């Protein structure tokens, strides 16, 4: 891990605060404003010592973003949507990755392994980007749940898929049995790690009504679950997602006090704001260092293929559920397709590519180009699309963290 520069961090947070004020008044996505500000900072005669690295994203910034989203996901509707979500993040991601990988191999001439790496890292939606884009949009509760839940699960699937490809790149031939065993160990180990950290610490939180202690315990849960899973080479994202669901649905039902719950939610909203601010500013700074014009053909092909792959991931999978209780309105499908933004996760995986991949440098640059398109084109047009489709609702009808309201809407489950 790089040495943390608190002076630079303070300057970035000051810029982020100004951007937040400006984008709020201009009714523009905060994430796009941050990237523009990052580009502006990079053009000034100053040096930003804080750089975007895989370690900074994975071990510092990603855990709180996943945890903050997970604690607001109510279990009952999440469980109700789980068959659809699983289909989207398995078959859907495989379809998306396959479209991108085959296209980059056939059109640009990348090696199969390099194209497969790029397909996996760019096919899954990134919760950092998706959550940042949807924070200010008050959409119908089910759509909000589908977007955030799918992005979180996709994040974990991308990491697992990337790890499998690393096995191929470093170990040579890997049999189907080894891949299946790795999948089972990774997913089950991640869920176990999340539960192993969250359950006892939530129980300890139930022994106090001090909201500061309760907030501290949730910090330990968020980072502890992630680090424990990664220590055993499992998905830290799935572990933190598991821990967040436990805290949000079990902890808020009694273990965390009534005064502690708003303190916990407010704390994590602020931490997510900090993490998003740093990530998108540093993306903007790094974009100026990328020789995108030198790979403009590959970047254009990758952008088009990523959209085609996302369409293949959303529409066919959801059509399969058209005659079931999980049928999804076409309006939702369009939002899920266009809302499949890419962000810091794709960049972290690209930066973590093995050095043995011949196209490594090109893949990193192309990934930054696709992320830029995602943030500026898809992110900026998302509010227009929501308005056009008539999906905006009052804020109280969109908030996932309101478990009581969601339970009433979902069939009268017992109130917390």
TrEMBL record:
Q: Where is the Cation/H+ exchanger transmembrane domain?
A: 15-386
Lipid bilayer topology: Multi-pass membrane protein
Q: What UniProt keywords are attached to this protein's entry?
A: Antiport, Cell membrane, Ion transport, Membrane, Sodium, Sodium transport, Transmembrane, Transmembrane helix, Transport
Segments passing through the bilayer:
6-23, 30-50, 56-75, 82-104, 110-134, 155-175, 187-205, 212-229, 235-256, 268-286, 292-315, 335-357, 363-386
Query: InterPro entries per the record?
Result: Cation/H_exchanger_CPA1, Cation/H_exchanger_TM
Q: Name one Pfam family in it.
A: Na_H_Exchanger
| Location(s), subcellular | Cell membrane
Q: Which PANTHER family does the record cross-reference, listed alphabetically?
A: NA(+)_H(+) ANTIPORTER NHAS2, SODIUM/HYDROGEN EXCHANGER
Instruction: Tell me its family.
Output: Belongs to the monovalent cation:proton antiporter 1 (CPA1) transporter (TC 2.A.36) family.
Entry protein name: Cation:proton antiporter
């Amino acid at each position: 891990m790089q040495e943390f520069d608190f002076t630079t961090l303070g300057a970035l947070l000051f810029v982020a605060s100004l951007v937040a004020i400006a984008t709020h008044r201009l009714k523009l996505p905060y994430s796009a404003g941050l990237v523009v500000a990052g580009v502006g900072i990079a053009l000034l005669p100053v040096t930003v010592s804080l750089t975007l690295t895989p370690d900074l994203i994975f071990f510092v910034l990603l855990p709180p973003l996943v945890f903050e989203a997970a604690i607001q996901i109510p279990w009952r509707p999440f469980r109700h949507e789980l068959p659809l979500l699983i289909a989207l993040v398995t078959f859907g991601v495989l379809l998306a990755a396959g479209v991108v990988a085959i296209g980059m191999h056939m059109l640009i001439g990348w090696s199969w392994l390099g194209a497969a790496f790029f397909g996996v890292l760019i096919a899954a939606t990134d919760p950092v980007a998706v959550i940042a884009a949807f924070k200010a949009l008050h959409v119908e509760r089910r759509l909000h749940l589908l977007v955030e839940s799918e992005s979180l699960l996709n994040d974990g699937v991308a990491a697992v898929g990337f790890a499998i490809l690393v096995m191929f790149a470093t170990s040579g031939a890997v049999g189907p049995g080894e891949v299946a065993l790795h999948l089972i160990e990774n997913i089950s180990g991640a869920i176990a790690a999340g539960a192993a950290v969250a359950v006892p610490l939530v129980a300890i939180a139930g022994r106090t009504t001090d909201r500061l202690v309760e907030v501290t315990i949730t910090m330990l849960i968020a980072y502890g679950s992630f680090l424990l899973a990664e220590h055993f080479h499992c998905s830290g994202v799935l572990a933190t997602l598991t821990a967040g669901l436990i805290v949000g649905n079990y902890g808020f039902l009694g273990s965390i006090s009534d005064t502690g719950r708003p303190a916990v939610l407010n704390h994590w909203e602020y931490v997510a704001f900090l993490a998003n601010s740093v990530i998108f500013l540093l993306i903007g700074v790094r974009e100026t260092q990328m020789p995108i014009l030198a790979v403009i053909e590959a970047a254009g092909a990758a952008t088009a293929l990523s959209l085609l792959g996302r369409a293949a991931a959303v529409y066919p999978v959801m059509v399969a559920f058209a005659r079931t209780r999980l049928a999804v309105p076409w309006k939702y499908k369009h939002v899920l397709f266009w809302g499949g933004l890419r962000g810091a996760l794709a960049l972290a995986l690209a930066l973590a590519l093995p050095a043995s991949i011949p196209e490594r440098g090109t893949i990193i640059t192309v990934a930054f180009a696709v992320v830029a398109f995602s943030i500026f084109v898809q992110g900026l047009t998302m509010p227009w699309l929501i308005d056009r489709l008539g999906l905006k609702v009052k804020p109280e009808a969109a908030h996932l963290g309101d478990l009581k309201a969601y339970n009433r809407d979902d069939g009268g489950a017992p109130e917390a």
